UniProtKB/TrEMBL annotation:
It comes from Alistipes onderdonkii. This is Pyridoxal phosphate homeostasis protein. Pyridoxal 5'-phosphate (PLP)-binding protein, which is involved in PLP homeostasis. One of its GO terms (molecular function) is pyridoxal phosphate binding. It comes from the Bacteria. PANTHER family: PROLINE SYNTHETASE CO-TRANSCRIBED BACTERIAL HOMOLOG PROTEIN, PYRIDOXAL PHOSPHATE HOMEOSTASIS PROTEIN. Transmembrane segments: none annotated. The modification N6-(pyridoxal phosphate)lysine is found at K25.
Length: 222
């Protein structure tokens, strides 16, 4: 199946209010170009250098989302152009994004990544730590950051009940956090190729779909 076909298939399964981020990590610029030519404009990547290289060679009206774990020393590669950073999981990272955004004279939109999965390997804030941090009103001192919502990843399992539990927990976190922010706090980023229909049922407003659109990733070619 072609990328254009898969894209329109996935789009067709989503309510209109849900934003589709096409996750193009590890796939070449040509694959992104195919999706672009089919009319898609929002792409997600998980490595800053790879994101930067693709930005350089592809049309400038693409909205680039950083979805993977971001090290503070790599923020500078993407700060000049990134549209949304989904994976803000620490105070140090937020403060670095603030500094780099100020240097570029921009405001960068971010999501707060919250850890709900069973696996230790998943990153993200613990809700209690995040609540504690928010008590110091940190974002009032970060004028170059706009917090748009919450992002999370469900446990990697075929047990739908566990996945549903994780997504419900993310929605609960979103609802708890919302009063700390303004009206623009309206994005709940959750759901990937295998679990996005459940995420949408649980209140997702943004899904991040990779392999279902671009095919399986081949990490051996990296
Ligand atoms: C890779 C990735 C995705 C997309 O995963 P697929 O299973 O290919 O849809 C979504 N979110 C994050 C954070 C990712 O790293």
């Amino acid at each position: 199946m072609s990328i254009a076909y898969q894209l329109s298939f996935v789009r067709g399964t989503l309510p209109e209010y849900v934003t589709l981020v096409a996750v193009s990590k590890t796939h070449p610029a040509g694959a992104i170009r195919e999706a672009y030519d089919a009319g898609h404009r929002i792409f997600g990547e998980s490595r800053p250098q790879e994101l930067r290289e693709k930005y350089d060679v592809l049309p400038k009206d693409i909205e680039w989302h950083m979805i993977g774990h971001l090290q503070t020393n790599k923020v500078k590669y993407i700060a000049p152009f990134v549209s949304l950073i989904h994976s803000v999981d620490s105070a140090r990272l937020a403060e670095t994004i603030q500094r780099e955004a100020a240097k570029c004279g921009r405001t960068i939109e971010i999501l707060l990544e919250i850890r709900v999965a069973d696996e230790e390997s998943k990153s993200g804030w613990e809700l209690d730590d995040l609540m504690q941090y928010l008590r110091t009103a940190p974002f009032a001192q970060m004028p170059n950051i706009c917090v748009r919502g919450v992002m999370g990843i469900a446990t990697n399992t075929d047990d739908w009940e566990v996945i549903r539990r994780d997504f419900r927990e993310l929605k609960r976190c979103f609802d708890l956090l919302q009063p700390n922010f303004g009206a623009r706090f309206n994005i709940l980023s959750m759901g990937m190729s295998h679990d996005y229909p459940i995420a949408v049922e649980c209140g997702s407003t943004m899904v991040r779909v990779g392999s279902l659109i671009f095919g399986e990733r081949d990490y051996s070619k990296q």
